[in-house]
Description:
It is a single chain. The protein is an alpha/beta fold and 275 residues long. It has 2 domains: 13-89 and 167-222, Rossmann fold; 98-164. The chain has 10 helices and 10 strands. The protein has helices at 3-12, 54-61, 83-88, 105-115, 120-133, 149-161, 179-194, 206-212, 230-235, 252-260; strands at residues 16-25, 28-38, 43-47, 69-74, 77-78, 90-93, 167-171, 198-202, 215-220, 223-229. The protein has a 6-stranded mixed beta sheet, with helices on both faces. A 4-stranded antiparallel beta sheet has the order 2-1-4-5. Strand 4 (69-74) and strand 5 (77-78) form a beta hairpin. Helix 4 (105-115) packs across helix 5. The longest helix has 16 residues, at 179-194. The protein starts with a helix and ends in a 15-residue tail after the last helix.
Amino acid sequence: MTDTSASEANALMPAVETVDLVRRFGDFTAVDRISLRVRRGQFFGFLGPNGAGKSTTIKMLTGLLAPTSGRISVLGRDIQTEPLEVKRRIGVVPEDLNLFERLTGAEMLTFTGRMYGLHRQEIAERTAELLDLMELDAEPKKLIVEYSHGMKKKLSLACALIHRPEILFLDEPFEGIDAIASRTLKDLLSRLTARGLTVFLTSHVLEIVERLCTDIAIISAGRLVASGSLDELRRGIRLEGDGQQPASPLSLEDYFIRVIGGARTTGEDVLEWLG
Length: 275
């Protein structure tokens, strides 16, 4: 196969693909036969209520947790048979961040770069650029333990980017951060996907998912209940009673609640003792 043919084949290969993915903890099934396909360069939103199995799925996709059964392919490689090759090519921002808090931001990035086998000069240049981009360079001697939650989120993202990953897995990156830090992250992620980076995002902030993501999947109780582009999924909704499509496009929040089956309260006749 020529280099051109190989490049074309790689471009057509999905960034992430799972087939009948299952994870059980004893008698409890956290992920139940999930099959996903995420295209390269896609900004993919993975949604679900608390306890639906989102974080468990991401841990399996990134090699932190072995599946009970099923198959996972990341960048055309089996995560179970080639875990190190996959991990070299992905970046991960876990929900609990896992930073070494007795280091400075620069030291944390340097350590991460060395773990990925980058050259010292390359690490120094990228560290300076990332700290500047994330607005974390004002106090270079400040330890991570003294960082705000938003600063830790931005540093964790910088660590996930330093080796130029092909896929970025983000588990609740906007949780607990202020509007300024949120804007910085959103703008950066939009630029990165425009350059071809694949982003796999879980978030409870549906407005952000609606703004950023091209495609979404929704799981509930460990099972996939919807998957596709947001426009396609909205078109598939029919109003109860007459079976007609809604007159105006549904928001992602409305769609999510319809699919999950939650009921929205109007605020009437609720906690009357407060009023």
